[in-house]
Design goal:
Elements (H helix, E strand, L loop, with lengths): L8 H10 L35 H4 L15 H4 L3 H15 L3 E6 L4 H4 L4 E3 L1 H10 L5 E5 L2 H10 L5 E3 L8 H4 L3 H14 L5 E6 L4 H9 L3 E3 L4 H9 L12 E5 L2 H10 L7 E4 L10 H6 L2 E4 L11 H10 L4 E4 L5 H6 L2 E2 L2 H10 L5 E5 L2 H10 L4 E4 L15 H12 L6 E2 L3 H17 L1
Parallel strand pairs: 1-2, 1-3, 3-4, 5-6, 5-7, 7-9, 8-9, 10-11, 10-12, 12-13
Antiparallel strand pairs: 4-14
Helix pairs in contact: 4-18, 6-7, 10-19
Length: about 425
């Protein structure tokens, strides 16, 4: 057998255990808020379900609720080789008019057709730079396609193969809840000194909100630089844009970045959008430097220090790399912490023969293991739960939208209205000028 170094019997056992539950789990399109619609693997206990957005907890159904109709039987019953043939033919027919973008968390059957792979913002910038492409098919989730539409030209159309591919974290902060929080803060403190910061994993409406209110977007790579811009030089002083940050939707990225900048527990408070006034008293609303929205990534929050302990017990000397969306107790005991691109570089830079335990989405972990045969890359989570909404993009949906384009029909186009796009672009450009 060739194609890479041989693996020991122990490693072969590890590989079988790692791949035990691997494979497609048969998710079908439907209402993204239907109970059970986003279970990535029935029968895999503990895998997260996608939570309801705050507006639905409050009984408000917003017009941004997305619904993907069922695919025609031609696609749902097709064999993998047939789908590959159809995708390949459509891609060849469309030529340079088409750009397919694949987020790192996508299935291999989708990534095989990607013209570029990367994180959400990186892919959006690639789309903006590829002005020749008339159609940008974004294999990711809804907020990513929105960002691409904001950054691309008027002659370009952005398409999301499955409209139900959303983001549980992004859904945890919606515009109504954030505006309500802003009004409460304005009644308790000098709102001119509060800087709203939204993570890239948020809707266009929230990006526009921070653009209108002097705030900024951040990514997991530049969150430290963005918070330094907002608050100044950490606790050591320095002039910033304000005295307080309202950070949404991911509390863990905000907390981990705050600790890295020298802030302590007493400098941070969690805003719970389900509670009156965020569950905070006026003293806290006035004094906390970092108000962290109670949101999280359902995949990254799964990781626990016990997972790292178990990995190190099995692989003494192994390297642990986790994403900053993990909880702080996980970040504290990891060897390295960084964005998706950081994790990819960390695996690439590790010495031959290394065993690397990774705390991020399983499709990326598996791909890193496949593409670095001189190293062993394993998930820290033994249940290997995928991102249930990223998982929705599959070969049938990709074939469906591409064949539609060949036939002259643009299916699942994602558009952001002009005013929202204008202010969201302000927030994005503010980020680019800051870092």
């Amino acid at each position: 057998m060739s194609g890479g170094p041989s693996r020991s019997p122990e490693e072969s056992l590890r590989t079988r255990r790692f791949r035990l539950h691997w494979g497609d789990t048969g998710l079908v399109s439907g209402d993204i808020y239907r109970s059970g619609a986003d279970i990535p693997a029935d029968g895999r206990p503990g895998c997260p379900r996608r939570p309801l957005p705050e507006r639905l907890h409050k009984g408000v159904v917003h017009d941004m609720v997305r619904l993907q109709t069922a695919l025609p039987e031609r696609y749902t019953t097709a064999r993998p080789d047939e789908l590959s043939e159809w995708i390949g033919e459509a891609k060849a027919t469309l030529g340079s008019r088409l750009l397919i973008l694949g987020h790192h968390y996508q299935r291999d059957e989708v990534m095989a057709w990607a013209d570029a792979r990367g994180d959400s913002f990186g892919l959006s910038r690639i789309a903006a730079d590829q002005s020749e492409a008339e159609f940008v098919v974004f294999c990711g989730v809804h907020f990513m396609a929105e960002s691409a539409d904001i950054l691309t030209g008027d002659h370009q159309q952005v398409i999301l193969p499955d409209l139900n591919a959303g983001c549980s974290m992004a859904d945890m902060a919606d515009i109504d809840a954030v505006e309500e929080a802003w009004d409460v803060l304005a009644s308790a403190t000098d709102i001119e000194r509060v800087v709203p910061v939204t993570y890239m994993n948020s809707s266009a409406a929230l990006k526009a909100f921070v653009g209108r209110h002097g705030g900024v977007v951040c990514t997991s790579s530049n969150a430290s630089a963005v918070l330094t811009w907002a608050l100044g030089g950490g606790t050591d002083g320095g002039s910033g844009q304000g005295d307080q940050v309202l950070f949404f939707p991911d509390q863990h990225l905000g907390r981990n970045t705050g600790f890295a900048l020298g802030y302590g527990h007493s400098d941070m408070a969690v805003w719970n959008p389900r509670l009156d006034r965020g569950g905070l008293d006026d003293t806290t609303l006035k004094s906390a430097s970092l108000l962290l929205w109670q949101g999280h990534c359902s995949v990254h929050q799964r990781f626990r220090p016990a997972h790292i302990d178990a990995f190190r017990a099995e692989y003494p000397g192994g390297l642990v790399v986790v994403h900053p969306e993990c909880s702080h107790d996980v970040v504290e005991v990891a060897d390295h912490v960084g964005s998706t691109d950081f994790i990819i570089r960390a695996v690439a830079d590790a010495p031959t023969g290394s065993v690397i335990g990774v705390g991020t989405e399983i499709h990326l972990v598996k791909r890193l293991d496949d593409e670095t045969p001189d190293k062993t890359v394993v998930s820290l989570d033994p249940l290997v739960c995928p991102c249930s909404t990223m998982f929705r993009i599959d070969a049938p949906h990709l074939a469906w939208v591409l064949e539609g384009l060949v036939a002259g029909e643009v299916r699942n186009r994602i558009t952001v209205d002009e005013d929202t796009a204008k202010w969201a672009r302000v927030a994005l450009e503010r980020m680019l000028s800051t870092v």
